[in-house]
Structures are given as C-alpha cells and as structure tokens.
Design goal:
This protein is mainly beta. The chain has one domain. Helix content is 13%, strand content 34%. The protein has three helices and 13 strands; from the N terminus they run αββββαββββαβββββ. It has a seven-stranded antiparallel beta sheet, with no helix packed on it. The chain has a four-stranded antiparallel beta sheet with strand order 4-3-5-6. The radius of gyration is 19 Å and the shape is globular.
C-alpha cells in the first residue's frame, strides 16, 4: 500500500469518527413515555428547563407560565402553550407557529441576565416565514464547524410575552445534555416585571 493510500484511509477514518449534526441521532421512531420537560428551580428565583426534543418529527409544547410540558391534545385544546421544540427549531404560539396565539418575543443583544429586571416595552414580534428564535439576530445558535456542534449565542437574551400576558427573560444554554445527547435543549428563564407601557 502506498503512502498516499495510507493517508487517504487515515483521513476517512478520522472523518467517520467525528460527531456530525448532519447525521440524525438514532431513534426507534417512538416518542418517549417519560416526561419530555424537566424544570429545576434555581436559588435566584430562575428556573432551568431541560427539553427532550430528540424525536425527529414530534413537537414538545411548553407552558412557561406554569413551567410544564403540555401534551399535544392539551396544547391544542387550551391554546395555553408558549413555546414548542422540535430538534433545534424553537417555535412560539403566535404568528407562523399558530396565528391564533398571542405569544410574542423580543430579542435583546448584549444585555446581561442580572441587569434585566423589567421587560422592555417594545421590540416584540411573532414568528413569520422564519421563527424568531431561529432567524432573528442569526438565530439562537451557531454551528461550530470544527466540532460539528450547535453552540448557543451567549450575546442573545430573549423576552417572552406569554399566552397569559406575563413577561419572562429566557436564555438558551445548550443543545446537548450532560451525556452529550443532541436535541436535549436546556434554557434558563425567569419572571420579569411588566414594562410601564405594555407593548
């Protein structure tokens, strides 16, 4: 075997071993029977949610007011869901995600988590031809070509006006759980004071 063939085989092996988001995470096609959303309270009054969005076609509906998952039938019947998750896509209950929904989201850049205690009075929008979370300001993540991983944009902070008209700040934390499983998204959120002028 020539040196050229050896280098070619070595390159193919290295490429094949690297994790690549273009390959779907292996599923059996069934939705998990367990909870798809786990919420953990923080000492500062914030909450951290872990969403199992690993199924390739199912959406996970989240009620940010109550901090819990809504099964699809309940989400459709009550229209009380705020955000839905399908792999890396985040959709709101308003606009393109659901024209009858009232949820709106503002995207803030370079705003520190601790400094935001009152919701802004303007800048809110609903999903259109592209979702706010995946399209505005470049989306909630960037793709690291060297590691083939989705990395949250730390400079972005979201303010969600919920289906009940309350305001929450939200920051995306990771696309992976502690074991490295993709599409197990985590985010932090916390209730804000209402703005002086409602949007």
């Amino acid at each position: 075997m020539t040196v050229r063939h050896t280098l070619l085989l070595l390159g193919l092996c290295m490429t094949g071993c690297a994790p690549d988001l273009r390959d779907d995470y292996p599923f059996d096609g069934e939705v998990s029977n367990g909870p798809l959303v786990q919420v953990t309270p923080g000492e500062d009054g914030s909450q951290q949610a872990l969403v199992d969005a690993t199924h390739k076609s199912a959406q996970v509906y989240f009620d940010i007011d109550e901090g819990r998952e809504l099964k699809a039938d309940e989400a459709f019947a009550t229209n009380a869901w705020d955000l839905s998750f399908q792999r890396y896509e985040v959709t709101m209950n308003g606009g393109g995600g659901n024209p009858t929904g009232a949820v709106q989201v503002a995207v803030l850049r370079d705003t520190a988590w601790e400094s935001l205690t009152t919701a802004p009075s303007e800048g809110y929008r609903q999903d259109g031809s592209e979702t706010v979370f995946n399209g505005v300001e470049g989306g909630w993540y960037f793709y690291d070509l060297t590691k083939h991983r989705l990395v949250p944009r730390n400079e972005l902070l979201y303010v969600v006006r919920s289906s009940e008209g309350r305001f929450f700040k939200l920051k995306m934390l990771s696309y992976y759980d502690d074991a490295g499983t993709p599409a197990r998204l985590s985010f932090r959120y916390q209730l804000l004071q209402e703005p002086d002028t409602l949007p």
